[in-house]
Design goal:
Elements (H helix, E strand, L loop, with lengths): L1 E5 L6 H10 L3 E6 L2 H10 L2 E4 L5 H9 L3 E4 L7 H19 L5 E7 L8 E2 L17 H7 L6 E7 L2 E3 L6 H12 L2 E4 L5 E6 H14 L4 E4 L3 E5 H12 L3 E4 L1 H8 L3 H4 L4 E2 L2 H7 L8 H6 L6
Parallel strand pairs: 1-2, 1-4, 2-3, 4-5, 5-7, 6-14, 7-11, 8-10, 9-13
Antiparallel strand pairs: 10-12
Helix pairs in contact: 1-7, 3-4, 6-8
Protein name: SDR family oxidoreductase
Pfam families: Epimerase
C-alpha cells in the first residue's frame, strides 16, 4: 500500500514510518524542511514537501496514496491548532470520500474521562470547531459514513523512547533545574503510557485491520502512578522527590502542571483483541531508569 504519513519527521513517526516500511508498505512522508526531508529519506521513505497550512499539498498527497496516516499537529500555536487540525481533516475527507481508503489520524486519551478508565467504545466528548483539537476526532470518524475507513489512533500522554522530547522530558528538565522532582498531591493519579516500538506496531496493524469508525487505543500501560514517575526521575537525576499542591503545580511545572495533576487512564483490551497486538517493549519506568530522559 502506498501510504502518505504527515508529521513524518516527528517523534512518533520515527517509529511508525520504519514499521510501515518493514510491513511492506511504500511510505511518502510529508515534511516542511530540509532537515525533515533528510530524516525521512534516511528511513527509506519518499518525500513530499508541504505542511498543515498548505491544504493543496494535503489533498494532492492523499490523491496520490492508497491511505493516509495523519500524525502531524501544530504544537507551536495552540491558539490556532484546533482550527488547523479541523481544516486538515476536512481536506483529507474531500479527497478520500467514497474511496474506501484507510484514514488513520492521531488523537489521544487525555482529558476524555479524567479519573475513569477510557475504553475504545467511549466516544470523544469534544465536538465542534471550538472544542479541543477542533473536535477533529468526532469529525473524522463521521467520515466512515462517507465511504472512508476512518480510524482514530488514541495515543496516551506519554509515548516513551530514548530521545523523546515530550512530557516526561519536560518533567525531567524541571527536576534538574529545580533540584527536586515534583508530583501533584498524593501522586496516586495515573498516566497511561506506551513504548514507541509498540506504538508503531499498533499503527501498522491498525492500517491493515481496523474497521471504519474504530478507535484504536495505542496504550501498553493503562496507568502509571505519577508519584512513581516523579520518583523514577528523581533517582535518575539524583534529586529528592516532593509533593506540590494543585495550586503550585503550574508555577513549579509550567504548562504541564494541570495535565500532570490529572488522572488519565485508558484500557487497550479491545484493541489487543481486534488487532492481535501485544506490547512487548520496556515500561515507562524501565525507560526512565535506563536513561532515556537524562534532562
Amino acid at each position: 500500500m502506498r501510504v502518505l504519513v504527515t508529521g513524518a519527521s516527528g517523534g512518533i513517526a520515527s517509529g511508525v514510518v520504519p514499521a510501515l516500511i518493514n510491513a511492506g508498505h511504500q511510505v511518502v512522508g510529508l515534511v516542511r524542511s530540509d532537515e525533515g526531508e533528510a530524516k525521512v529519506k534516511a528511513y527509506g521513505a519518499e518525500v513530499r514537501r508541504g505542511n498543515l497550512d498548505d491544504l493543496d499539498s494535503l489533498r494532492a498527497g492523499a490523491e496520490d496514496a492508497d491511505g493516509v496516516v495523519h500524525l502531524a499537529f501544530n504544537h507551536a500555536d495552540f491558539a490556532t491548532a484546533g482550527a488547523t487540525e479541523r481544516a486538515a481533516i476536512e481536506a483529507f475527507g474531500q479527497v478520500l470520500a467514497r474511496t474506501g481508503k484507510p484514514f488513520l489520524f492521531a488523537s489521544g486519551v487525555a482529558l476524555y474521562k479524567p479519573g475513569q478508565v477510557l475504553t475504545e467504545d467511549d466516544a470523544s466528548p469534544f465536538t465542534g470547531p471550538e472544542s479541543p483539537r477542533g473536535g477533529a476526532e468526532q469529525l473524522a470518524l463521521s467520515y466512515a459514513e462517507r465511504g472512508i475507513r476512518a480510524v482514530s489512533l488514541r495515543f496516551p500522554p506519554t509515548v516513551h523512547y530514548t530521545g523523546d522530547h515530550g512530557f516526561i522530558a519536560f518533567l525531567a528538565q524541571k527536576a534538574k533545574e529545580q533540584g527536586v522532582s515534583a508530583y501533584v498531591g498524593d501522586g496516586a493519579h495515573r498516566w497511561a503510557a506506551v513504548h514507541l516500538g509498540d506504538a508503531a506496531k499498533a499503527v501498522a496493524l491498525a492500517l491493515e485491520k481496523s474497521a471504519p469508525g474504530a478507535a484504536v487505543h495505542v496504550v501498553a500501560e493503562p496507568g502509571v502512578a505519577t508519584r512513581e514517575i516523579a520518583e523514577a526521575i528523581g533517582r535518575l537525576l539524583g534529586v529528592p522527590t516532593e509533593s506540590v499542591t494543585p495550586e503550585q503545580a503550574q508555577a513549579r511545572l509550567g504548562f504541564i502542571g494541570r495535565v500532570f495533576a490529572t488522572d488519565i487512564q485508558a484500557s487497550s483490551v479491545l484493541t489487543r483483541q481486534r488487532l492481535g497486538w501485544e506490547p512487548t517493549g520496556p515500561t515507562l519506568l524501565d525507560d526512565i531508569a535506563g536513561g532515556a530522559y537524562p534532562a
